[in-house]
Design brief:
With 130 residues, the protein is mainly alpha-helical. The chain contains 6 helices and 5 strands, in the order E-H-H-E-H-H-E-H-H-E-E. The strands form 2 sheets. The chain has a 3-stranded parallel sheet with strand order 1-4-5. Helix 5 crosses helix 6.
């Protein structure tokens, strides 16, 4: 299961639904993983935070507990195709979400997110919410 940025932020702020979902996934034995674009997005948010020291501690605690998936050549290529196709069809997606979708597609993982509309309809990418 590949965590989207929204899920990790919700876990960091102790959102009840996100925390419950994380516990259920862990109990099932399915690993929750984090990708390079999500790390990027979290650091963007950290740099804009009014409380970067507090946020950094929370962020590193969550990130340090999760396996990391890089944006490799195959995943970047898949993400680029997803981004281009969505843009051509008039249903644009953020570049970071396209990269996350590319990683998920190549790895055969579902994306765990509260923002279903960012990932729905992408062929070969399953989505799970909470």
């Amino acid at each position: 299961m590949l965590a989207d940025t929204s899920f990790l932020i919700d876990v960091m702020v102790n959102d009840a639904a996100a925390v419950e979902k994380a516990r259920a996934i862990e109990a099932s034995g399915t690993p929750i993983m984090v990708s390079a674009p999500t790390v990027f997005e979290l650091h963007v948010g950290l740099s804009m935070s009014r409380r970067p020291d507090v946020e950094k501690v929370r962020m590193l605690a969550v990130l340090g507990s999760l396996p990391f998936l890089p944006l490799d050549y195959e995943s970047a290529s898949a993400g680029g195709r997803i981004y281009g196709e969505r843009k051509r069809l008039g249903s644009a997606v953020d570049p970071e979400d396209a990269m996350i979708a590319g990683i998920a597609k190549v790895r055969g993982e579902k994306v765990l997110t509260r923002n279903l509309r960012h990932f729905e309809g992408i062929e070969g990418v399953g989505v799970e919410s909470y």
